[in-house]
Request: fold
Amino acid sequence: MPAQSWFAPAVSRWRSVRSRLRTTHPYVVDTALAALVLFAASLQWMFPDEGDDRLTWQGFLLAAGTAAPLVWRRRAPFLSACAVSVCTPAMALYHAPPPNVAYGGLVILYTVATLCPPAQRRLTLVTWLVGASLTMMAKEHAQPFEYAFHLTSFLSAYALGVLTRVQRAYTAELEDRARRLERERASDTARATAQERARIARDMHDILAHAVSLMVVQAEAGPVVVRSDPERAEAAFDAIATSGRDAMTQLRRILGVLKEEPADGTSARVPQPGTAALPELVRQVTESTGLRVDLRTTGSPRPLHPDTEVAAYRVVQEALTNTVKHAYASTARVELDWTEDALTLTVTDDGRGPVRSPGVRGPAAPAGGHGLIGIRERAVACGGSADTGGGPDGGFRVAVRLPAAGDRQAALG
Reply:
């Protein structure tokens, strides 16, 4: 406990000092460091050992030459290293006085190892190990332990610089990776938003086109029978109201995804319709428009992904809407063929079939405008496929294959 009582505050103060140093201008920090190096070298002059040379003006200039270049050590590290590398052995050669510890050399070796390219780092290290250190020790007639001390101090300073460079490179790589991940996350978010908007646009198109088509058919039929058959006219107006209410309900359901959830965590959203709602859709179209629609199912129903369920419903809805709007058909047939790995939806009618544009040669263009494009987009988005064109017995045919839940991921991959 006593050790922890002073260690934690000391670490906190050191982190605070390091943070302030990082935010201070480099010239201010390096000037203070140069002054500290000059002061450390001056201690030998202020308190000389017996036999040491006294301070001379040549010694002061050479000592200043080992400290002053440190002011520019970050802007010009190699030039600063060259200046310090010249002045330090000069002090040893001229004994004015010779330095016991090459403080400037330790700092510059750390700086070069941190900031310089490989060739300059190797040249500086070899110069200090072979040149400066041996020159100083030879003039001082150094003992073996002094050789070891100087070599170890130089290597330690250089190694500390290497560790700092590696740590900075690692930190820069982590920061760059974090920025890349952030950009990728933003790109994924934008892509998901665009896909969701496209899905909502397709759903709104299908809902509005279907509801408006039914309402137009009933509105056109209402005035014709309003006097001759009031009950039929009343049924037409009821069908218009029912179609409008159903469209409003489905629009609220879709637009609900754009609203925030209630604070209590409950959701007022109702699941969008799927294959289970197709019989009701067929009944509604039959009662509202007079188009006889036959629904047939073969095979055993399989689990579908929720998006695929919605796509199946919208495909049938859009196909029947196109039949009501463009085909002038009297009957239509909806077939659901369930297999082990897919659901095949086929909608055919006995209408006029694909429409050929006047004066255009080649195959006839299908009716339905953007609706058929939306059907293909829905099928592809679920990993399936769509085929549209004339039916085998005339009329128009829409065939869509949608994968089951187990095969959807493989189809999309």
About this structure: The chain has a mean pLDDT of 76.
